[in-house]
Amino acid sequence: MTEDEVSLRKQLVEHYQKVDALGLNEMSSGNLSVRFRDEMLISPNGATGDSISLENIVRCSLNGEYQGKRLPSSEWRMHASIYLKYADAGAVVHTHSDYCVAVASHEISLPGFHYLVGVFGGGDVPCVPYSTFGREKLAKDASDALAERTACLLGNHGMIAKAPNLKRAVNQAQRLEIMCRQYVLAKQIGEPKKLTKTDWEDFFKKADEMAYARNG
Questions:
Q1: What digits encode the pLDDT tens for the residues 24-57?
Q2: Whole-number average pLDDT of the chain
Q3: Residue ranges covered by each domain of the chain
Q4: Is residue 107 a contact partner of residue 127, using CB atoms and an 8 Å limit?
Q5: What does the alpha-carbon distance between residue 88 and residue 27 come to, in Å, rounded to a whole number?
Q6: N or C terminus: which one in the chain shows less Cβ crowding within 10 Å?
């Protein structure tokens, strides 16, 4: 392995364990990857926070060809589809975090009830329809939904986020879980007020001034 590959593997292990410690994934649910040249490094199928290691991370082509004894995550197609579609995607994080699953189980978009919904790129976070895990349809739907967003919900499944690097992708996954939790809490006393078109225009103007969304 080159020094670059070893460095990326270390980052992947570190961030996989962080996602586990944050409670965004439990047992072997969810997966992380990072772009490596014209391929990707991805967590192996069945990985947990305790079992992930530099050695069992899988080097995988964007066509699914892999090296080593471990299979890549069953969701490798979803990761690969995002890398193929978005040149600026350097890392992908997929979680089954509690509140993202709660909202996604209704197959509804997370609405613009709070200005921080805007850090994902628009006035809502879309939810794609349910598809069986690991299937090409799920990969296509998820990658299409990220055309103007950095994250989306996956119907009856969870969420996925893309970013230039692992740190920002994990931050996006954590932020979306927070926003879904707050939306679920707000719904307990009725449907929350949504920000208006004018509100969003002013938010994105201010966000551009402060580079807010880019740092989210």
A1: 999 988 999 999 999 999 999 999 999 999 999 9
A2: 95
A3: 3-215
A4: yes
A5: 30
A6: N
pLDDT bin (cut points 50, 70, 90) of residue 215 is very low
Range of weakest confidence among 46-50, 98-102, 207-211:
207-211
Cβ(196)–Cβ(208) under 8 Å? no
Q: Domain 3-215 classified CATH 3.40.225.10?
A: yes
Catalytic site positions: 75
Q: Which residue in 17, 14, 10 sits closest to 36, CA to CA?
A: 10
Please give the Cα distance from 36 to 118 (Å, whole number).
29
Q: Is the pLDDT of residue 69 over 90?
A: no
